[in-house]
Amino acid sequence: MRSRQPVQAFQLLIMAILFALALAVVFPFALTVFSSLASDKELLMKGAVLWPQEWTLDAYRFLLDNPQFTRSFTNAVIITVVGTTINMTLTVLMAYGLAQPDVRGRKLLNFMVLFTMLFHGGMIPTYLVVNALGLIGSYWSIWLVNAIAPFNMIIIRSYFQTLPKELKESARIDGGGEFNILLRIILPVSMPTIVTFTLFYTVVNWNTYFQAVLYLNDMDSYPLQVFLRQVLIVNPSELGLAVTDAGYQYTEGVRHALILIAALPLLAVYPFMQKHFSKGMMMGSVKG
């Protein structure tokens, strides 16, 4: 009985720490949700609320009627969907090629990928290359610069190397080409890993901010994160965002609603990918 007391005390301590961490995550999120549903008068007096006295959807109506918000949200969706598709296509193809032991120059290519993880070209050289290619002002400046994340490619390659050789050999005997083997055999058994890194790329593309400011020179092409920064940090009156034709302003309620909407797509997607997430993270790290 005495031997169990230290164990139980340790378990209670762990539970208390986890509860505190969960509360630290849930509290600001709940504060944002309820503040976005409060009236402007109440927020003006209190700053933020956990339970509004007067419930209203005016902040969300304002954003849906705001063409700048709808345009930036649409841009973010385009950047995320197309960018993630390009990321996963190129990453999987490169990982599969480098996972084959008989590919010529495989060691050199692996070294080049690893080198880019340790030494980056830097902001100015990258900008000069993008500018020389004529990609400034185009979404391709974002998609191509972030086309392949070396770390993600290495993990996926390592997982492909753990797959039984018999899978590919039996397919080759049946006359299957490399692309058909990848598409019909390798990818179906690799879904946890594929889904995991699709989520990683989706988060990166959805949260694109710095490169959008650096490479895009038109406000109409800015994604949602740039619009969010303008509303939260920069004085709206300096950007012509303060008042619309209907007379609405970027109040505290609107800002809370915008924060929630910017985070909501990822929060909505994650539960559907959660069952693959933990398994995918472990499967690619077995073999280096």
TrEMBL record:
<feature type="domain" description="ABC transmembrane type-1">
    <location>
        <begin position="73"/>
        <end position="273"/>
    </location>
</feature>
<dbReference type="InterPro" id="IPR035906">
    <property type="entry name" value="MetI-like_sf"/>
</dbReference>
<comment type="similarity">
    <text>Belongs to the binding-protein-dependent transport system permease family.</text>
</comment>
<feature type="transmembrane region" description="Helical">
    <location>
        <begin position="181"/>
        <end position="204"/>
    </location>
</feature>
<feature type="transmembrane region" description="Helical">
    <location>
        <begin position="254"/>
        <end position="273"/>
    </location>
</feature>
<dbReference type="Pfam" id="PF00528">
    <property type="entry name" value="BPD_transp_1"/>
</dbReference>
<keyword id="KW-1133">Transmembrane helix</keyword>
<keyword id="KW-0813">Transport</keyword>
<feature type="transmembrane region" description="Helical">
    <location>
        <begin position="12"/>
        <end position="37"/>
    </location>
</feature>
<dbReference type="GO" id="GO:0005886">
    <property type="term" value="C:plasma membrane"/>
</dbReference>
<dbReference type="InterPro" id="IPR000515">
    <property type="entry name" value="MetI-like"/>
</dbReference>
<feature type="transmembrane region" description="Helical">
    <location>
        <begin position="108"/>
        <end position="128"/>
    </location>
</feature>
<protein>
    <submittedName>
        <fullName>Carbohydrate ABC transporter permease</fullName>
    </submittedName>
</protein>
<keyword id="KW-0812">Transmembrane</keyword>
<keyword id="KW-1003">Cell membrane</keyword>
<feature type="transmembrane region" description="Helical">
    <location>
        <begin position="140"/>
        <end position="160"/>
    </location>
</feature>
<dbReference type="GO" id="GO:0055085">
    <property type="term" value="P:transmembrane transport"/>
</dbReference>
<keyword id="KW-0472">Membrane</keyword>
<feature type="transmembrane region" description="Helical">
    <location>
        <begin position="73"/>
        <end position="96"/>
    </location>
</feature>
